[in-house]
Amino acid sequence: MHTILKFPLLTLLLLAASFVSAQTGNIEKKEMTAANPTNQASNPLLKGITHFKDNDIRFTRNDGKVLFVDPTSGPYDNAVKKSGFLKADLILITHPHGDHFDPWLLQAYIKANPRVVIAGPAMVVAVTKAYGIEGVQLVEPNKTYNFAGFEVSTLPAYFDDKGWNHPKDQNWVGYVLALNGARYYVTGDTQPMPESASVKADVIFPLLFGCGGNSAQALEMVKISGAKLVVPVHTSGQVETIKKYIASLPQGVQSAYFLKGEQQPAL
Question: What residues have CB less than 8 Å from 99, skipping those under 6 apart?
Fold first, then answer.
């Protein structure tokens, strides 16, 4: 269970401003209505899975437990309410950039489920603590964990180009999730890496646009991981870029993509 502590505003700003540009937003003070996550995916590997924006991907296990990666849409967002992904049993954060990590939003999800387990790299742990969120679990690259009954493995996520501000020595991560008899690889913000060859993923969610990523790198990530189903994320809603990328995938590799939590028609 998480405890949310209160700190003076100035202390929070000094501790956290250098780490993350959080999207504070205004959260409507409404009572949430109960709903079950739904997804009418045509591919059975995507049943109970959705993607909202950036790297915000959400999974439902066959037993009903729910996992979020990098949630950046709040529980009062219309697309989230429509999807039913209002509560999580486990929230995983890849790194502390504002398009992947929002401490204020995490507080809303803790309110929805005080027993939610949250995990992320060391800087995420430090920032959440600065925002008064205690009990966040530390993850490091190349390890396997069991959080809230989920098997979670980590890979490093970084760019050699220092201009993109994703250095390897920060120990930021991508996640491999063992769910419902399949393996899902959420790459996070990363370039293609030799380590990805060990994943043996069934489904990959590669960075497609921005933050140092591009279509060529996302294509290489698919080839290295051996995934047979690709769902590009972090697309900035660039539909033409998504379509060109999907058209370039190797023969035999399937694809799907989402906009605002809804799977789009096959191309």
Answer: 54, 55, 72, 211, 234
The 3-state secondary structure of 207-227 reads: ECCECCECHHHHHHHHHHHCC
**Fold for domain 37-258?**
Metallo-beta-lactamase; Chain A (3.60.15)
User: How far, in Å, CA of 107 to CA of 44, rounded?
Assistant: 32
pLDDT beyond 70 at 7: no
The mean-pLDDT minimum among 46-50, 81-85, 213-217, 249-253 falls in: 213-217
Decide: pTM greater than 0.70. yes
